[in-house]
């Protein structure tokens, strides 16, 4: 009987091992299929990018970069490839990229959007080499990596691209994710394909996560080692602005009360307009609307005018007169200007959109923060602000209208929220130092190599 039990136990173990091997084999097959599909669709990449350029979603003059063709020379010496998908991720990376620059390490920064490229140009200038990130296709990525030969790759937040991960791993280039997070939806998707997740996440050399929850999720999906740093966005500088423009608009606004709806998505501009109309007889306020995607501004202006509202647009340099209802912030890279014109900001993609947007910038610049409840992508930032009283989450448009009216009318309550927000920001600082310390095994050898190079060899 004991022998039979042992045979049964061994057979069960063998079955589980065989099942695991089959699942791992299927995962490898799926990733191979992904790469083969990339090879097959590569001939369509050019027309696809041309279409996106026509739609304004690609830089027409630089779209060859998306196929892995370099538009700048590679400098001699150590080079780290850093990648951030869009504006928010790029802002979070800036202090870390400057730290790498202080260590004489060349930084190649790739981004995926036109707006983020403009941000890099304005904020970092010649401190980094900027390229648009290649499509996650075998030929594009091999061409890109063969040319730039990075010594390490640092990605921000939640960028997981199979071909890129596999190609870097094949070449033994360390892959590090910083300020890492995984949304609820993404985590559920990866869990449904856990063997594929393990095959990819297991190839990461290091993950530095924003929170304990994010760290746990990365570990569950196969990443190791995983550390926790906090949110790098707490260590960023406040967004800058043009002092002359700020002075001009402050003079034009005068004593009028203001509030802003920033990073708005479709539906949230209409909500802000309705709130403006409801509150104007009591407050006479100016409403500032800053859409997340400025290319929607023509449609937004048409909607506002259809409601009988007077609109001034930043892109036209319109003056703000006493009759102006809405100041439409339709320019790129000027969030610092808009937030300095108010002490009350609703942060969008949270009422009609999903996921939320970064609340730390308005808190940093002295704004009481309001938001819808759909903020899962910035859960910890909102939790920290709300715990101290620097932010309030609202359920619907009616509740938002009441909160805006209360805070416009109550200077003491508004100031209390502002102070609490700035206290929260100060407490959240420190993620940069933790991240740099975690990266030292990878960047310290590069620093030594860079500083041993003759100056003529490291010149760009």
From TrEMBL:
One of its GO terms (cellular component) is plasma membrane. Pathway: Bacterial outer membrane biogenesis; LPS core biosynthesis. One of its GO terms (biological process) is lipid A biosynthetic process. SUPFAM superfamilies: UDP-Glycosyltransferase/glycogen phosphorylase. It holds the Pfam family Glycos_transf_N. The active site is at residue 89. Its EC number is 2.4.99.12. GO terms for molecular function: Kdo transferase activity. Residues 63-235 form the 3-deoxy-D-manno-octulosonic-acid transferase N-terminal domain. Its main location: membrane. Keywords: Cell membrane, Glycosyltransferase, Lipopolysaccharide biosynthesis, Membrane, Transferase. The keyword Transcription does not apply. The keyword Cell membrane applies. Involved in lipopolysaccharide (LPS) biosynthesis. Catalyzes the transfer of 3-deoxy-D-manno-octulosonate (Kdo) residue(s) from CMP-Kdo to lipid IV(A), the tetraacyldisaccharide-1,4'-bisphosphate precursor of lipid A. This is 3-deoxy-D-manno-octulosonic acid transferase. Belongs to the glycosyltransferase group 1 family. It comes from the Bacteria.
